[in-house]
Amino acid sequence: MGWIQELYETYENSKELVGLVDETGNVLLPIGHSTQNAQVEVAINLDGEFQEAGKIEDKGRAVTIIPVTEDSGTRSSGIAPHPLCDKLCYVAGDFADHSDKKKAAEYYEAYIQQLARWCETRDCHRYVMAVYGYLRKKTLIADLVEEGIISLDEKGIIQDKDKIQGIIPSECFIRFRIQDFDAPLVGELWNNRDVYESYVNYYLSTLKKRDIDYVTGEILPCTDKHPSKIRNSADKAKLISANDESGFTYRGRFKNKEEALSVGYVQSQEAHNALRWLLQRQGFRRFGTAIIAWNVEGKQVPKLLSDTEEIAGVISGDAGFSYALELRKAILGLYGDLNNKNSRMVVMAMDAATTGRLSLTYYQSTNGSDFLERLAFWHSTCAWKLGYKKDNMDQYFTFIGAPRPEDMILAAYGAERNGIVSVDDKLMKASLERLLPCILNKHPLPRDMVRAAIFNASRPLAYSRLNRRKYLEITCAMISKQHIDESQDEKEEAKMALERDNKKGDYLYGRLLAVAHAMESITFAPGENRETNATRYTNMFAKRPFKTWQIIWEKTVPYKRKLSIGQRIYFDQLLTEIEDMFPDEASRHLNRLDGDYIHGYYHQLQEIYQKDKNIKGEVSK
Description:
The protein is α+β, with helices and mostly antiparallel strands.
């Protein structure tokens, strides 16, 4: 029960925010409340008299906080009215007169009797009393017809031709607003904290079933009906659910579901509302998965699945030397409130195997200092010099740091279509969950993921030039991370500059490929964008380097003649230097190149373009 305990305490620590719209536009729901998209808004005055009604066409305005009961909050069939705002069949007393729906009158009777019990309490809010007074008149359908919201056929039946937000009129959700001189600004019942409090006090007084609460260990009103809508307002999947009493759910283990789990109503509501709120504010909700990292005390936390630039800004420092120190300082400086043993961090990942069941695929609770230390370790050991375009500008910006896990997966498994690199959602979801232990527990990168990235980087013609550069850099970061993981030296840093003393055959072949690419590309006329022979033969070169290098070199000879004398001397000296570094003939006759050749290619190309003023270009050329 660790996760629900952490969420319950998070809610308790954030109670002053309940019912308030925060800076992200989200609301921490009160207990006993949920959200629903409304299609029609009805305005009445404090005397319960109809004022006006209108359609809610904008879905951004449609989200409505509504009070719910245990039954209505989990209803899928049957009659289970919400206490205040609900569908037209529940709130309209004259619905049965204009519908051929079976048991139409029973929906309204169940609703109005439930609302009457709330209104009979001493603390019932006067806005709720006004709604009750209006709906008792049973004129809602007639009022909506007069306002042109709905229409009737010749038999007086509601016509369902014109939909509102894709919902037929007879199924529309109705919300209420007080329009009165004595109710300025706060007439929206779904945004009124006093109305929230009135319902919570009333509903808690109706709960009679008491049992041991597994969260607090106390005897409290408990529930076996837990909220849904965790990931979004249309989400029907639940984290806690038990409705199979005739199957194999408890066989051989428990007599009933209460023996398996018993959770207090308030504790369940607060935990689920906190989780929903956190996911909306700072969660990762894509590809069918939901991942969230938060601090129980409510302190600011870094986005777990972001790159270094988004988490800590652009890190200065020399590549391969001081960037790791600068990165750690930046992370600890921005999130210093978390850097102590008493601050608690929680990470959860959820996935829905079916539409009704939400599983917890990853859970970890740790102190803030350990969390920051592991995050800093990830960003420093997976760091590389990465480029990006900012705000759709043509200028290319760079930073030193770790790429987004999502981009690492695209580098490994992505395929480009129409300039966009993508992977299947299921593969992305599974891969993200595989990377979580790498970020949070210092596990090494999956070898198959690194191999796949190397394979894709060896197929440059499969990508557009901008994507080719981006995923080459990300692949270099993954290879560097793998080297550091295998060395088991946490103080080792990525080598982003040319390794002149590296005599490994794979690395040297990568340097040779970079020289051939640069020699040809600098002879291109302005605006000439064709591919070099080095680029076109990269895939074959990675599989058979010795034979393919002879082909590439022969095709490079004509371009060598176009070089200036100074350029020719520069490249001849560079090629001689690299060729002489092969320690023996065996290092030349390699069957296949490993990821080191990509590092050699990147390092040598950067060295060429940065060192010689007469040679201009970029890796992407």
